[in-house]
Structure prediction request, 192 residues.
Amino acid sequence: MARSKEFEENVVLEKAMKLFWEQGYEKTSMNDLVKHMGIHRRSIYDTFTNKHTLFLKVMDRFGNRISSRWSAGIKQSRTAKQALQLIFEFIINGEEDAPPGCVLVNSAVELAVRDEEIDAKATAAFAKSEELLTEIVTWGQQNGEFTKRYEAKELAEYLHNTLAGLRVMVRTSVSKEKLQRIAELNLRILET
Prediction:
């Protein structure tokens, strides 16, 4: 007779996400996951197959979380510049009760060069971010907020590169003031 799950999958996945986010894939052991997720090792294997598959699910969860937060920020913005400011602020200030940085960027830096599945997930998530940034830049160009000197896609790639760099830098002791200056310069460059 099969046992019923004694946990909510989304709750334990959230816990795993925060642990991987904080420590990275390699440093996080199965014992760490058992302790942090509050479920038995057997339950992890039964539900997620193995650590790698669990990590891929964490990457998906994080990607969906970021997309929905960025989209919400865009919907509440009156201008394209304001939408970008919200994205920069979100990255620089992070989330309450969450580690700094980004699971996707951290994963790409740590694993993409040697793990095709991680690389594919990170690359797809980055492409999705660039699509969203392209929409914002196009909006700003149509409203006269941003330069039309460059294609919206090129500017979105440029912005995404900056945002990826900021997501790495927020994990260091670099001051928020410096990160804000970087964000402000990027916005000024778009206006030229």
About this structure: Residues 56-191 form a domain with the Tetracycline Repressor; domain 2 fold (CATH 1.10.357.10). The chain has one domain: 56-191. The mean pLDDT is 94.
